[in-house]
Amino acid sequence: MLELTMAAVTAADAGATAGMRMADAPSEPGAVLRVGRDASVCRLSTPDDWLFVSRVHLEFRCGADGAWQLTWLRGSQPDPSSEVRLVVDGHARSLAYGGTVSLPRGGSGEIVVQDRAEPRSVNVGFYHEV
Fold this sequence. Notes:
The chain has strands spanning 2-10, 21-25, 32-36, 44-45, 58-62, 68-72, 82-88, 91-95, 100-102, 108-115, 120-128. It is mostly beta strands.
């Protein structure tokens, strides 16, 4: 099971947890969870006016072995208006635009989508239950 929690944070309400959303999916091959502005295909959706987040921005996909991968999907623009970081055990690493990274089995962490133009972010916590 992969559990996600998402909070949209602006400088004005940094540290607030109001508006937190949750989603989960079993660790079965082919299971998918998406994060973005398009609520019709994303289990976790951000405000429509947060244009630094693509319609479908992040995709969590379960592989044949039950391990989860995170992909930052490329949007319609050649250069992104955000940065994406994966934070696990206090260590942050940037995710390349269009890149994919494996999530730790049985681990937890956070994905931070940071707007490059304003002090706001989308913070997605994850917990992989084995």
